[in-house]
Amino acid sequence: MAISTVVFDIGGVLELDVIELVDIGLDARWEQRLGLQPGELNQRMEPIWLAGSLGECTEEHVHQEMGKRLSMNQEQIEEYMREMWDWYCGRLNVPMADFFRSLRPRYQTAILSNSFVGARREEQQRYHFAEMCDLIIYTHEEGIAKPDPRIYELTCRRLGVRPEEMLFLDDNQKNIAAAQALGIHAIHCGETEQAIADVQACLQANM
């Protein structure tokens, strides 16, 4: 059966890390500012990060919990979140984004991304992903995250295709394996040029 639909991940595919923020160590720097031990910020906030990734809380609740758990004032919370979103959104992988755009209208295209509450707004402001494709599925809006098979089944339903009609590009091997188990043509994204070549080869072989 021919491939009719191409689905891309965001982090590590359409977005690349902001090296400067990774090198600085966002949490490590804030732990110093707040007088916390190394790793303590994430330890205190881990349940909230998880809830936000599954859409089980609002951004307002995240901010409230930061105040309670980290004793941060509103100004500090806003500053941390600005830096966090800069790290989270990284920088646009321009060659990959250009290639993704070029697939329309020959193919139906979509984005499937593990995400955090607020991601749709932040990434749309920066990169206008909604204009690149036909559908965006953020896992925090669905309450299911990759590699749970249900998120791939949901994606197929939303797009109106069978698994074998879909090509999926992701940088995480577990996510790829889960997609392949359902019959989806799943490809690993490592180096950008090679990933683009692999997608083109797969599409050519499944016309």
Radius of gyration computed on alpha carbons: 18 Å
- Strand percentage lies at 5-15%
At CATH level 3, the topology of the largest domain is Rossmann fold
Average predicted local confidence, pLDDT: 95
Can you put this structure into words, describing what you see?
The chain is an alpha/beta fold. It folds into two domains: 5-17 and 91-205, HAD superfamily/HAD-like (Rossmann fold, 3-Layer(aba) Sandwich); 19-89. It contains eleven helices and seven strands. The protein has helices at 19-24, 26-34, 40-53, 59-70, 74-89, 94-102, 119-127, 139-142, 149-159, 173-181, 192-205, and strands at residues 5-8, 15-16, 91-92, 108-113, 135-138, 166-170, 185-188. The strands form two sheets. A five-stranded parallel β-sheet has the order 5-4-1-6-7, sandwiched between helices. Strands 2-3 form a two-stranded antiparallel sheet. Helix 3 (40-53) runs antiparallel to helix 4 (59-70). It is elongated and about 60 Å long.
List the helices and strands and how they pair.
Blueprint: E1 5-8, E2 15-16, H1 19-24, H2 26-34, H3 40-53, H4 59-70, H5 74-89, E3 91-92, H6 94-102, E4 108-113, H7 119-127, E5 135-138, H8 139-142, H9 149-159, E6 166-170, H10 173-181, E7 185-188, H11 192-205
Parallel strand pairs: 1-4, 1-6, 4-5, 6-7
Antiparallel strand pairs: 2-3
Helix pairs in contact: 3-4
Organism: Ktedonobacter robiniae
Protein name: HAD family phosphatase
Pfam families: Hydrolase
